[in-house]
């Protein structure tokens, strides 16, 4: 193989074929409200961690559905479980509890 | 004898239905609990999408009311079925035997102070869409003081289960875009932001209005719900939201924040509903017999509905609904009181 001096970057395109439906369904079984998110961003706007770290529940839910579980988990690891997001969610989602459930189901640490 | 029709509510729906029923030959009595006819339309300055003056629209409605007997400052005291008709006692002591009743009790604006995090009634420069319309009408509002940075918050008391208002109020998106353009025209140096979740530009010409807001008025649309507002020492406001398009929390200082208060079922309408034993749906608005084919009929014979009493509507939607109710009432009365209809026809041809 000739070395052209550059390599290939991994594709950043969202591939919905990678979406793990079984995993998301088990999350939804435990937290049916996860399907109620309208991506308004209220949770992220008030997030105490979000100002300094890429913490966003709104984006994490999206990423889980895009089959990017690891990206989603990285977006939640700064969460301090303060529960401010639960107070502002217009759909009344218990976001704090949802984050714990996501961690339980998607965490690779056992 | 001409059939009596009672209309409860003197807003656009009641006025339009009243004028049409009078024209169809009925004896129309309209009851309004406040001291003026016109409802919310009377408090509005201009209407989207074309900027029609609300007063011109209202004058047109009032101008076709010839012969309709209107009682303002009047409440319904009791209403009871009597044979095929309804025996209605009004607070002014008058008793009416109505052969059909049209409930056009409209809506109340969401009380923005309920969303405490936006600070309406607490901070000095937070107003509602209704306050802004009043300002456009009168030019008076001490909270509006040459603002250079203005924000509009969509969906206040709409699509918000926290405040018990799940439904979309339908008209606020277009109202916000209209008002944002009007503010830019009034304060050309101002930078204007609209915080939205979805822009529902469903009507004819609405999309053009949105395009103009972006292109000609330079309104910045930010896709994110305002989650927190606080007041700075100088009276300006710190507003926080997420710019969900760029996935970043966002903060902006503003001189004026306009809350787009949504529509709620009217409290006085709910009282009428309980007098009649009428059903509400979960969203609090009255249930209709069929949402597709019988929108203006309740499940109670002889009781009809029009306008925002059955959910948020624009003014033209309301007027069309009211005309529909008038033809439905005409059909009902002709079927149930056939002789009266014949007499009506006779009078028409004989005179």
The rounded distance between the terminal residues' Cα atoms of chain A is 41 Å
Return the string of H and E elements of chain B. EHEEEHEEEEEEEHEHEHEEEEEEHEHH
Number of domains of chain A: 1
Supply the number of helical segments of chain A.
6
Number of helices of chain B: 8
Helix content of chain A: 40-55%
Structural class of chain B: alpha/beta
The main β sheet of chain A shows up as: none
**CATH architecture annotation name of the largest domain in chain B:** 3-Layer(bba) Sandwich
Number of strands of chain B: 20
Q: Name the overall outline of chain A.
A: globular
Write up this protein.
The complex is a heterodimer of chains A (110) and B (351). Chain A is 45% helix and 0% strand. Chain A is mainly α and 110 residues long. Chain A has one domain (20-106). The model of chain A has no long low-confidence stretch (mean pLDDT 91). Chain B has 2 domains: 4-106 and 266-350, FAD/NAD(P)-binding domain (3-Layer(bba) Sandwich), CATH 3.50.50.60; 112-262, 3-Layer(bba) Sandwich (FAD/NAD(P)-binding domain), CATH 3.50.50. In chain B, strand 13, helix 5 and strand 14 form a beta-alpha-beta unit. Chain B starts with a strand and ends with a helix. The chains are: A mainly alpha (110), B alpha/beta (351). At the A-B interface, helix 2 of A face strand 16 of B.
Question: What is this entry, summarized?
Answer:
With 110 residues, chain A is an all-alpha fold. Chain A has helices at 21-30, 42-46, 57-65, 69-76, 84-88, 95-106. In chain B, 29% of the residues lie in helices and 26% in strands.
SSE inventory with pairings:
The complex is a heterodimer of chains A (110) and B (351).
Chain A: H1 21-30, H2 42-46, H3 57-65, H4 69-76, H5 84-88, H6 95-106
Helix pairs in contact in A: 1-6, 3-4, 4-6
Chain B: E1 4-8, H1 12-23, E2 27-31, E3 46-47, E4 52-53, H2 54-63, E5 69-71, E6 76-82, E7 85-90, E8 95-98, E9 100-103, E10 107-109, E11 126-128, H3 129-138, E12 149-156, H4 172-186, E13 191-196, H5 206-215, E14 220-223, E15 228-231, E16 237-243, E17 248-254, E18 256-261, E19 263-265, H6 267-276, E20 303-305, H7 315-336, H8 338-350
Parallel strand pairs in B: 1-2, 1-9, 2-5, 9-20, 11-18, 12-13, 12-18, 13-14
Antiparallel strand pairs in B: 3-4, 6-7, 7-8, 10-19, 15-16, 16-17
């Amino acid at each position: 193989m000739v070395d052209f001096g550059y390599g290939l970057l991994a594709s950043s395109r969202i591939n919905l074929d990678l979406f793990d439906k079984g995993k998301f369904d088990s999350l939804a079984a435990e937290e049916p409200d996860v399907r109620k998110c309208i991506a308004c961003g209220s949770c992220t706007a008030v997030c105490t961690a979000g100002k300094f770290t890429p913490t966003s529940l709104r984006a994490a839910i999206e990423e889980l559905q895009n089959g990017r579980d690891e990206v989603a988990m990285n977006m939640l690891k700064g969460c301090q479980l303060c529960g401010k997001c639960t107070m502002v969610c217009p759909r009344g989602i218990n976001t704090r509890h949802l984050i714990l459930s996501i961690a339980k189901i998607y965490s690779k640490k056992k | 004898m001409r059939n009596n029709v009672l209309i409860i509510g003197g807003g656009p729906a009641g006025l339009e239905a009243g004028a049409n029923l009078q024209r169809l030959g009925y004896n129309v009595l309209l009851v309004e609990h406040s001291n003026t006819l016109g409802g919310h339309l009377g408090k509005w300055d201009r209407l989207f999408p074309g900027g029609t003056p609300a007063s011109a629209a209202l004058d047109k409605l009032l101008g076709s009311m010839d012969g309709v007997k209107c009682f303002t400052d009047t409440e319904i005291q009791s209403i009871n079925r009597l044979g095929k008709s309804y025996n209605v006692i009004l607070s002014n002591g008058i008793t009416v035997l109505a052969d059909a009743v049209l409930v056009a009790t409209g809506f109340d604006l969401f009380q923005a102070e309920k969303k405490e995090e936006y600070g309406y009634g607490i901070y000095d420069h937070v107003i509602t869409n209704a306050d802004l319309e009043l300002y456009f009408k009168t030019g008076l509002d001490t909270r509006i003081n040459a603002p250079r940075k203005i924000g509009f918050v969509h969906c206040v008391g709409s699509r918000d289960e926290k405040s018990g208002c799940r439904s979309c109020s339908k008209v606020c998106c277009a109202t916000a875009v209209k008002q944002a353009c009007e503010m830019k025209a009034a304060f050309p140096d101002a930078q204007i932001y609209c915080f939205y979740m979805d822009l529902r530009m469903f009507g004819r010409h609405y999309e053009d209005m949105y395009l103009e807001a972006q292109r000609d008025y330079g309104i910045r649309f930010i896709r994110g719900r305002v989650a927190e507002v606080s007041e700075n020492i100088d009276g300006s406001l710190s507003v926080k939201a997420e710019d969900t398009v760029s996935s970043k929390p966002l903060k902006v200082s503003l001189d004026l924040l306009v809350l787009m208060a949504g529509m709620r079922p009217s409290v006085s309408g709910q009282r009428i509903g309980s007098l009649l034993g009428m059903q509400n749906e979960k969203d609090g608005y009255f249930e209709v017999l069929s949402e597709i084919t019988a929108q203006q009929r309740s499940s109670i014979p002889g009781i009809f509905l029009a306008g925002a009493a059955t959910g948020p509507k624009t003014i033209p939607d309301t007027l069309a609904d009211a005309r529909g109710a008038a033809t439905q009432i005409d059909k009902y009365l002709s079927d149930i009181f056939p002789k009266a209809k014949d007499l009506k026809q006779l009078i028409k041809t004989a005179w």
